[in-house]
Every structure is written in C-alpha cells, then in structure tokens.
C-alpha cells in the first residue's frame, strides 16, 4: 500500500506532468515573470469557470481578504462579523486594518456561520459579514444575504477552501464566491486548486469594484507611477498562473475524486459508534477540501494518536478557537463564550482526503478506525 498522506501533491503533479512542465518551460523562456500574459489568461479562464464573474488575482488568500476590505472603504473601528470557527487569516486582516472582528457562533453540523446568530451582533458600526465556506461547503448564503441587505452590509465570502462549490436555494443558484459583494480564494498548494507556491484571487460581479481591487493590489495605480489610492503589492506570479491554468481544467475532476473518497468514508464509517460523519447541507455542493468527522464518546486525541501509530495522519482544524487565541483576547471573551466552537475544537478530526487516494488506503483507514476501542 502507498503511504497515506493528508495531501499527495507529487502524485497529482505526476498525472499531468507533461502539460505542467510545458507551461512552466514557456514562462521560463518568455521571462515575463511579473504580470505576464498567463496571468490574464488564468483570470479569464477562472472567470468563465465562475459563470462570468470578474476575477482579480493576487499574492495569496490572506491578501485577497485584505484587499477586499480595503476596497470597500471601511473606517477604523467599523465592525465585521465572522465565524469564530475559522482559520486565523479571516480575523487577522480585519484586525490589521484596525477594524473590529466580531465573532459569531457556527452551526455544529455544517461548521459554517449560523445565520440565526448574526442579527443580534449587528450594531451601528457593523459594515460587513464574512461567511467562510469551511471545509469545502458553502455557508448558508440566502439568510446571510437577506440580513446584509436589510442592514446595508457588505458580504465578503471567504472561499479559500471551497473553490468549485455551488450554492443553491429557491431564490438563488450560483457558484460560491459570486453571491456576496466580493468572494476571495486561495491557491495555497494544498487547497483544492493549488499552485506550486502562494496565490490568491478576488471575485466580484461588480465591474467597478473589480477595477478598484486591481488597483489596490497594484500599489493603488491604474497608470504606472500614478497612485490614486493607497494600495499594496500583491501579485500572482506568472509561473503560478501558468500552472493554475493547467490545473483549473482538472478542478471538476478533482472535486469528483474528493467526493468519491468522502462517499467511501460515509459508507464505511457510518456504523462506528464514535464517529459522526460530516453533514451535507441541502443548499450547497461539497468539494471536500477536508473530510472532517466529529469524534464522540471517546477522546479525539486518543483516536488521533492511535491512527498516527497505524500510519494514518489526521489533522485538527482548528485546535484553539479564535476567541481564545492570545492575539484576539482583546475582544474579552473567556472559555464558555462560544460553546459550539469550543466543543468542535475538542472533537473535530480531519481524515486524509485528496485526489490520489485509492481504495486500498481507504479500506485500511476505515478498518483501522473500526478496530479502535
Ligand atoms: C487558506 C485559508 C486562507 C488564507 O489563504 P493563504 O493563501 O494561505 O493566505 C484564508 N481563509 C481560509 C478559510 C483558509 O483556509
């Protein structure tokens, strides 16, 4: 049996090596390493994939969130609501811009922001809601968009883990990241569309906003040496864009493969008394960036250690909730403030899932979990 890994970037590369190598070689000989033609070509291909929404690439997914918030002209002290169960980047850019992160509890089954808890967090200073499409499934966007429109708030979708997931309800059906004011994503190597380094993108249906995002990502300039607004330097490398254009063609296939792995786990772990398999929301497709179970009745860490001894890696996303992180203690929350998220931090476990897993590995993982006592 092949060794089991959380991600298998080498195996994924080897399946499309000739195409990738050719794309890289072309960039090396053209030598337009910064903002070469492959960057716009990739933006245009991703735009097509996202049903025509405007795409502006940047240096990474964290920058994408930051530039999005810069483009919306928030003032220091303005409040931004985000789920407390997320990766630190979501909160970090809010704090960095001297905005105030306002944590919201998540739904224990879908792991995404609970719309029912949002409205009571809204004050006169609230300017935006940032739903995070965690683990590869969209947050419940319809009620979030309704709340936002009732209160005149912007919506920034953090789609770093969900590129390719669709949201649907009676009122809307669309690609995740195209429903709110701005969507953001990441091309970190282990994400569903992974580069061979850092990368990120912002997505919007608003053409004016798209050019503003593009300006901010490029030192606030539209014309060289003419700086109309304060910007940053955040670019997707030409090399990464060329690689991503090749991999984008396989993104739907990657999602199918991840879904097969997830279905195998569903089928073989459902009977385990201490495993709660992830819930599939009725309003979203799932691209399974992570397959995250909840461990019940036994210690999560003892299961994790047992699997480690059997050669099965697992990860905990995320072991310490944001409100209990030292950097975010200023918000003044203590243990007990977000009981659902705190329980998740003690019970979630992400199993290996990637595009290269085979049935032998999957059977071994499920049988090994089945033998745990
Ligand atoms: C990965 C990730 C980011 C940040 O992306 P980078 O490209 O690593 O900066 C932001 N939000 C979430 C939810 C992520 O998973």
Account of the 3D structure:
By secondary structure, this protein is of the alpha/beta class. It has two domains: 9-104 and 111-248, Type I PLP-dependent aspartate aminotransferase-like (Major domain) (Aspartate Aminotransferase, domain 2, 3-Layer(aba) Sandwich); 251-370, Aspartate Aminotransferase, domain 1 (Alpha-Beta Complex). The chain has twelve helices and 14 strands. It has helices at 9-15, 17-30, 37-49, 61-71, 88-96, 141-151, 207-217, 238-248, 251-269, 300-309, 339-347, 359-370; strands at 54-58, 79-83, 100-104, 126-129, 154-158, 166-168, 173-175, 182-186, 200-204, 221-223, 226-227, 275-276, 291-295, 348-351. The strands form four sheets. A seven-stranded mixed β-sheet has the order 1-9-8-5-4-2-3, with helices on both faces. Strands 12-13-14 form a three-stranded antiparallel β-sheet. Strands 6-7 form a two-stranded antiparallel sheet. Strand 4 (126-129), helix 6 and strand 5 (154-158) form a beta-alpha-beta unit. Helix 2 packs antiparallel against helix 8, helix 3 (37-49) packs parallel to helix 8 (238-248) and helix 4 packs parallel to helix 5. The radius of gyration is 21 Å and the shape is globular. The mean pLDDT is 97. Bound molecules: pyridoxal-5'-phosphate. Pyridoxal-5'-phosphate binds at residues 60-62, 86-87, 89-90, 132, 158, 160-161, 186, 188, 198, 200.
């Amino acid at each position: 049996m092949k060794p089991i890994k959380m991600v298998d970037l080498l195996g994924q590369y080897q399946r499309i090596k000739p195409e990738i190598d050719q794309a890289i070689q072309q960039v090396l000989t053209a030598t337009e390493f910064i903002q070469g033609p492959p960057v716009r070509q990739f933006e245009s291909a991703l735009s097509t994939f996202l049903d025509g929404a405007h795409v502006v690439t940047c240096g990474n997914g964290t920058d994408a969130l930051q530039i999005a918030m810069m483009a919306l002209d928030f003032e220091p002290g303005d409040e931004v609501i985000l789920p407390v169960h997320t990766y630190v980047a979501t909160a970090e850019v809010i704090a960095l811009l001297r905005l105030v992160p306002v944590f919201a509890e998540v739904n224990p089954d879908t792991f995404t922001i609970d719309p029912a808890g949002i409205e009571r967090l809204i004050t006169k200073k609230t300017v935006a809601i940032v739903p995070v499409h965690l683990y590869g499934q969209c947050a419940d966007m319809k009620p979030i968009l309704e709340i936002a429109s009732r209160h005149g708030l912007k919506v920034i979708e953090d789609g770093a883990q969900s590129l390719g997931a669709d949201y649907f309800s009676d009122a809307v059906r669309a690609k995740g990241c195209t429903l709110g004011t701005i969507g953001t994503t990441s091309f970190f190597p282990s994400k569903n569309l992974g580069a061979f380094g850092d990368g990120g993108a912002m997505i919007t249906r608003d053409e004016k906003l798209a050019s503003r995002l593009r300006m901010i990502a490029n030192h606030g300039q539209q014309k060289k040496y003419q700086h109309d607004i304060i910007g940053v330097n955040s670019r997707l490398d030409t090399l990464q864009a060329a690689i991503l254009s090749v991999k984008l063609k396989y993104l739907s296939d990657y999602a199918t493969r991840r879904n097969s792995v997830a279905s195998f786990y569903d089928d073989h772990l459902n009977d385990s008394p201490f495993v709660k398999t992830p819930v599939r929301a009725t309003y979203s497709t799932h691209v399974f960036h992570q397959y995250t179970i909840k461990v019940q009745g036994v210690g999560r860490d003892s299961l994790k250690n047992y699997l480690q001894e059997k050669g099965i890696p697992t990860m905990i996303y995320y072991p310490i909730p944001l409100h209990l992180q030292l950097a975010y203690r200023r918000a003044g929350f203590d243990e007990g403030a977000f009981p659902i998220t705190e329980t998740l931090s003690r019970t979630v476990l992400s199993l290996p899932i990637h595009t290269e897993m085979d049935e032998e590995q999957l059977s071994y993982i499920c049988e090994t979990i089945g033998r745990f006592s």
